[in-house]
Amino acid sequence: MIALFVVCLTGLSFVHPFGNPRVEPRKGLNTLLQGANIPAGAKSVLVTKCADCHSNETRWPVYARLAPGSWLIERDIVEARKKMNLSLWDQIPPDQQVALFGQMIHEAKRGDMPPLQYRLLHWDSRLTSTDVASLSMMETSSHQEASLSGSGDPIRGQSVFEKRCTGCHATGEGHEGPPLAGVFGRKAAGVTGFGYSAGLKNSGIMWDETTLEKWLKDPDILVPDNKMDFHVPSAQERSDLIAYFKRQKGQN
Fold this sequence. Notes:
It is a single chain. The protein is mainly α. It has two domains: 141 residues, no CATH class; 98 residues, Cytochrome c-like domain (Cytochrome Bc1 Complex, Chain D, domain 2). It contains eleven helices and no strands. The radius of gyration is 22 Å and the shape is elongated.
């Protein structure tokens, strides 16, 4: 019975209900992040800590070949490659590369990556403070700080808002996030009745060019206790968004 059970599990491992990530050939870790202009330390962290799921260079241990565990592992890898595949980095548009750099840094600082189920099986995959600092250097090398001299374009800013922000925010009503009509020049946590974090309520921040730039770039640095799980990695998009918010204030 035990032998039959093992044979069944092995047979089921050839079924791939979520897709088969094993079909992509491995070409070597040295082929990852082709064309990426990032520091060597950051690249080393991405290759050693992220490549198992976010590239075609996945290592397949024995336990990953027995169903139904193999199905769950394959599902995670298929989804991870869809979001970011380091093997195909040179095929990603430059603006999307910048956005991915920012997302990596944001999730690393929050401790969201690698995910818990991966860390439980790979104890050495946890990002250390040195790893996070190395990843943070990608932001400096990938784009410059936004200019606070009014170079943003409110028309582009409206487009950025509609593309990136409307999943949680609107200008005139609250959704998952508070309404942002008149946010420029307003005190942080200033919408009555919305459930802000204690950190934002007690911050005393007034939203202007400087504070909005810092908030959009990395909310966790400006206010460690906050509920905003999103940021805008592109310096130009931040500048355009601020110009859009500023124009709204002038129209009210």
